[in-house]
Amino acid sequence: MGGYLSGRPGSGKPSVEDCINLNVCNLYHKGLLEPGSRTVLKNRRGGSFLFQCRENYFGWPLCVSITWATIGSDKVRTEHNQVIGVEFVDVLNGKARRPYFFCPFTEKRVGVLVMGDRGFGHRTFYGYDYKAQRMGHIDRALNSARKVKEKVGGVNLSGALTDDLLRPKGMHKSTFARYVDQHQRAIAPIVWRVTMVLQLQSIQPMHD
Predict the structure, then answer these.
(1) What domain of life (predicted)?
(2) Are 184 and 119 within one domain?
(3) In terms of residue numbers, what domain contains 97?
(4) How far apart are CA 70 and CA 159, in angstroms?
(5) Is residue 141 domain-resident?
């Protein structure tokens, strides 16, 4: 059972959350994986990418073409282009389709690509991990419980993370029940740790 320091040690590399990334599902829901779509994507660092979705291009039935520019130390502007294959996989017994990128470096289907020094690739290619992977067991539990409370919102944002959830007005009972289950599973390690600490504190050393 991990503790506060049981997470993966920091590698010195940025986490996935710190990097510019592409989420294939987000792009799909925005309609950007339709052949012929073209847009400029902005990133939080102030840069931009020309994003295009194409059919039968560069050997792919469907792919995205991404173009961006960098300025070198000599102040010379260099333009880069990367073509990434997109594949759709049937899910739910063929009732729906889920898109995937085909990582150009690992040659695997992935949902998220991060920007590195060679362009967009899967996090495992660059050795990046998620912030949660660097946390200890209890820290991950606290983070999960906090996220659930933020989703439920309202009065649940006050008080301790281990407090029972209160159903907000207008939230469906089945939706609230799902959040309650997620919250209970998230706080279980926290409650266990607190209980163990209290039990140890209650044990008094015996003296002759």
Answers:
(1) Bacteria
(2) no
(3) 16-126
(4) 47
(5) yes
- Measured between alpha carbons, how far is 193 from 33 in angstroms, rounded to an integer? 46
Cα(13)–Cα(127) distance, integer angstroms: 8
Would the CA dihedral through 127, 131, 132, 138 be positive or negative?
A: positive
Does residue 207 lie in a domain region?
no
142 and 105 fall within a common domain:
no
Task: Write the pLDDT tens digit of every residue in 59-114.
Answer: 999 999 999 998 888 889 999 999 999 999 998 888 889 999 999 999 999 999 99
Contact by Cβ (8 Å): 190, 162: yes
Q: Distance between CA 36 and CA 200 in Å, rounded?
A: 65
- Digit-coded pLDDT (tens) for 131-145: 666 556 677 777 788
Asked if 137 contacts 6 with a C-beta cutoff of 8 angstroms, the reply is yes
